[in-house]
């Protein structure tokens, strides 16, 4: 049971990880007003660097003290960086609106370089504020030097940051778990990079460091008062442990290892005050308990998510149309009952407001196209019911299966399908990249010129059962399936709707 000692490597690690998790949660809460981002960021790294160094300090109280102390300067710096990011955002919006291929190469390279530079400066300048007291102009110079000296590790960490944001957006249902893991990892590695460089600098400026330390108002012993930190007051706990393990007391030897452990712990806690018990528990068991609970919750959450996904037969989406409540029942529970699926199987159709592609603005249209591609790639939608105008805009072989590969074409007439014919521009575009069609079908170049039936037109009877607006025509298209029995389910659904397949 030595691993449970407060100063053991295991407990040190668990305590540091738990404190970094708490710090990132405090950072998110204090950054919500946006304008306070800089102060929260510098306060986070003020405490985090102490944790990684192994210095005994609190977590919550020192965070807010650092937040208050550096608020003015951090806010000024953050507003400057915010203006820079706003300009970068406008440039990227212009590039997206104008089209990537229509933007001059020099302009694109400049914006990419400026974006990376601004991100690295933001990463570097606030931990510098947390560590040193200097004028704002000197801070920017110091951050610039830091970026140049530590460019490689900083660019790798920046890539991890961008990757974590993409992962959070891509797998939104796993956002809390991804954020906790990525933010803790990023914070730790950034602290390692900063500490290494700061130590190198401070080794050559020992006298200046001493003067700076004397000017800092923070007192670890005072700050820890009333704040039970997960990594604080280890000295007090060791003193308490010495008192608990009195030499004249006999060691518990009866029972197995588990029962002996609980008997020993019960004996230690006997006669302690509530505050002493809380301190003892916080140092010995709270970090491990937090991580175990998080691990169990993550495993349970993941298992439930996998179970739901496995139990789902079909997931549908709507573009520019709405189903009535009776129509949703017909497309979900009605289909499951007709298909003879077991009671624990599920099906779903999302409301139109969850997937609305009705906006015609070019910029938003491109954004929504990316969202549609992501939804299909991640398996959110197995099929889409689309109003006729949406079919013309979004039905391409990049997204949907060739209906001739699914149904018996002899059972339907040519008027029942929407046929896609690639333009010369689309052919040139597709030849430069990899589409879903390439992944699932091998990208047969010989078939590029032929009309491809991508969507099947719904009959008036089906539209009535689904509760669709009768003044429009509607089509159904099916995404590429990654499931072993995906196409079988598709065929069942087509037969359920049309009475044939």
Characterise this structure.
With 501 residues, the protein is α/β, with parallel strands linked by helices. The protein folds into three domains: 2-223, no CATH class; 234-284, no CATH class; 302-498, D-Maltodextrin-Binding Protein, domain 2, CATH 3.40.190. Helices cover 62% and strands 6% of the residues. A six-stranded mixed beta sheet has the order 2-1-3-6-5-4. The longest helix is centred in the middle third of the chain and has 29 residues, at 175-203. The chain starts with 8 loop residues before the first helix and ends with a helix.
Brief characterization of the structure:
The protein is 62% helix and 6% strand. The chain is an alpha/beta fold and 501 residues long.
Straight-line distance between termini: 66 Å
As a percent range, the share of strand residues is 5-15%
For the biggest β-sheet, the strand order reads 2-1-3-6-5-4
- Described by the principal axes of the CA atoms, the overall outline is flat
Order of helices and strands: HHHHHHHHHHHHHHEHHEHEHEHHEHEH
Average pLDDT taken over every residue: 76
Keywords:
D-Maltodextrin-Binding Protein, domain 2, alpha/beta, 22 helices, flat, 3 domains, 62% helix, 6-stranded mixed sheet
Write the layout of secondary structure elements.
Elements: H1 9-31, H2 37-53, H3 60-69, H4 71-98, H5 105-131, H6 136-149, H7 151-170, H8 175-203, H9 206-215, H10 220-223, H11 234-244, H12 257-269, H13 274-284, H14 286-311, E1 312-319, H15 325-331, H16 333-339, E2 346-349, H17 362-377, E3 383-387, H18 388-394, E4 417-420, H19 424-430, H20 436-441, E5 452-457, H21 460-466, E6 474-478, H22 486-498
Parallel strand pairs: 1-2, 1-3
Antiparallel strand pairs: 3-6, 4-5, 5-6
